[in-house]
Amino acid sequence: MQTTEAKVPPLLLAVLISLSVGGLMSSDINLPGLAQTAHALGTSVSAVQATFSPYLVGLLVAQLLYGPWSDAIGRRRLVIGGFTLYAVASLGCALSPNIAVFATTRLLQALGAGAGLVLARAIVGDLYGQQTAARVFTTIMPVVGASPAVSPLLGGYLTTYVSWQAPFFLTAVIAAVTVLAVVLRVPESLPAERRARRLRTTVGNYRRLLLSAKFWGYGLNLGVGYAVYTGYLVASPVIFQRLGMSTEINGYCYISIAAAYIAGNLVSRRLVKRHSIDRLLVRGHLIFSSGALVLLVVGLTDPQTPWPLLVLMTAVTIGNGFLFPMSVAGGVTSFPAMAGAASGLLGAVQMAGGSFSSLVVSKIPPDIRSFAILVAVLALTGLTAFHCLRAITARAATAPKSPPAVPPAAPVASATPTDD
């Protein structure tokens, strides 16, 4: 049963952080070792880069799979099974004899790690009400936000001083320790009486969520926010290089983005004690859209220095620091009977946004002007959609319910004697 306010046990919080970070950390911890991996496997760097595609597909499929499945059988068994697969597949990556095996184990690694992404959110939705869930997510999200900056840095040191295999051994150890903690100390969060009786029912919950304006009011925030974030990760290296920034300095630019995201998380965490999630989402959208519009104005002048993009994307990312934790908290706690399905679909919408922007970025010119237009369109679309869906949800909540139809009364026998 959900509780409105509760203290989160430190071990549970550590497990939730590990579950949330594992899949994202493993996506880029081996980036600095691409050349060494290619050499060890006797293949090209581009072939190793191509293994990121099945990894992302694995994360997307995993979130859609584990969500409704966990609504039917509970979270704990799937956490243990998923992260066990993650640990074994990580060892498989490190011990791969060729690129075919490596690509296969990368896919399996994502299918296992993806359990953590969806089930951590569902567990929080099982245990806590909106305000506490928001505080939990604003504790987890700074670590998640730091992973794109910290993971490659850590992977670079491990690759340089140990081997290209070391990052995979590290993820295997982290996954194994997480499984051990869950087995020994973390109980099931979804009691049997709250589970769906049939898996078919939980899969059918996707239809209810897809038709819910309230769900999309939270889900589109994740899609838009991740679209801007992923678009920046894909576009910025090319833009910065074109404008003369060295590769070494380029690497440090992502630290500012991670810091901005963490700052947004921490500020929203303090504010959620006094304000509703929806009110904080309004503030997040205003920060997000304001930064995007200023970036558009500056970008239309076609600046020949990377600093406007770096500074203004940092401002935009502060808004993302509000949007992500608040949207996840609102999405999973608004549908307690189907928190797993809601969590999985939220993750799928988020990944779809990132895939969409990556595709668009690959088609537009590699300059600040083109990217600024994309960011502005995404931000304004997100802002407009959020307010429209919020209005639809409010109208549906206050609409008078139609009274049940009253069946026609049966004819009453006349008390007047007949004339026959």
Write the layout of secondary structure elements.
Blueprint: H1 10-28, H2 34-41, H3 45-49, H4 52-73, H5 76-94, H6 99-127, H7 130-161, H8 166-185, H9 199-210, H10 213-242, H11 247-271, H12 277-299, H13 307-333, H14 339-363, H15 368-398
Helix pairs in contact: 1-6, 1-7, 1-8, 4-6, 4-9, 4-14, 5-6, 5-8, 6-7, 6-13, 6-14, 7-11, 7-13, 10-13, 10-14, 10-15, 11-13, 12-13, 12-15, 13-14
Describe the fold and architecture.
It is globular and about 60 Å long. 78% of the residues lie in helices and 0% in strands. α5 (76-94) packs antiparallel against α8 and α7 packs across α13 (307-333). The protein is mostly helical and 420 residues long. It has helices at 10-28, 34-41, 45-49, 52-73, 76-94, 99-127, 130-161, 166-185, 199-210, 213-242, 247-271, 277-299, 307-333, 339-363, 368-398. 48% of the residues are buried.
What share of the residues does DSSP label as strand, in percent? Answer: under 5%
How would you sum up the global shape?
A: globular
Identify low-pLDDT runs.
412-420
> Total number of β-strand segments?
0
Backbone structural class = mainly alpha
Gap from first CA to last CA: 70 Å
Order of helix and strand elements from N to C terminus = HHHHHHHHHHHHHHH
Mean pLDDT score, rounded?
A: 86
Query: What oligomeric state best describes the polypeptide chains here?
Result: single chain
**Mind telling me the C-alpha Rg?**
24 Å
Share of helical residues: over 70%
> Helical segment tally?
15
* Largest sheet descriptor: none
